[in-house]
Design goal:
Length: 197
């Protein structure tokens, strides 16, 4: 009796196997399913970026590690653009009073990046900030100048990209944008520092 039960079970399994294989062979190939999906996508927008295999894990990109510094620099530059036209004032560090050259950078980095910079140009250069070569300048870097290429550093501005910088020039003038390619600034350019990265 037991052998009869085993024989009937084995026979049932043998008969059901070809049926299962036949069902699998009738299922449409993957490329046909994809093409029908693309045809229906005309009716409704489809975001291909959301389709990922379940086994993949998204790794953070190395560039993402520097994102906070990039955001801070972008904010500093954007705020500096808004201050163009504010009068120069020796010792000034506020919008209401006006700014001198280093006071402008102290204000920008304090309000937009939450950083406390040294108050004078000499202290900014002597601090622990990163020294940056002329060819490595990025928006948000501080650019330093002396007078006509002579003497100690006496002026600082904020590099904003494309060889341009924003600064508070001197008494009687207003915050403005200038080019490092200008003959005077090119001759007076001394060094640069990066405070946030």
């Amino acid at each position: 009796m037991r052998s009869l039960t085993l024989l009937s079970t084995a026979l049932l399994l043998a008969l059901s196997l070809p049926v299962a294989e036949a069902r699998e062979s009738k299922s449409p190939p993957l490329h046909k399913t994809t093409s029908s999906l693309s045809r229906t996508s005309h009716a409704k927008p489809f975001n291909h970026n959301n389709v990922r295999p379940h086994h993949t894990v998204k790794q953070p990109s190395p560039a993402g590690l520097h994102r906070p510094q990039t955001i801070a620099s972008t904010r500093v530059v954007a705020r500096a653009r808004q201050l163009i036209g504010i009068p120069y004032r020796r010792g000034g560090t506020t919008v209401d009073d006006g700014f001198d050259c280093s006071g402008l950078l102290v204000y920008l980095f304090r309000t937009e990046a939450g950083m406390k910079l040294p108050r004078t140009t000499a202290e900014m250069i002597e601090g622990e900030s990163k020294r940056v070569g002329r060819g490595e300048l990025k928006p948000g870097d501080a650019v330093f100048f002396n007078h006509n290429g002579r003497g100690n550093v006496s002026h600082v501005g904020l590099y904003i990209g494309n060889n341009r910088f924003i600064h508070a020039p001197s008494s009687g003038e207003r915050i403005r944008m200038d080019s490092l390619d200008d003959h005077y600034w090119e001759r007076s350019y001394t060094t640069a520092r990066r405070f946030n990265g």
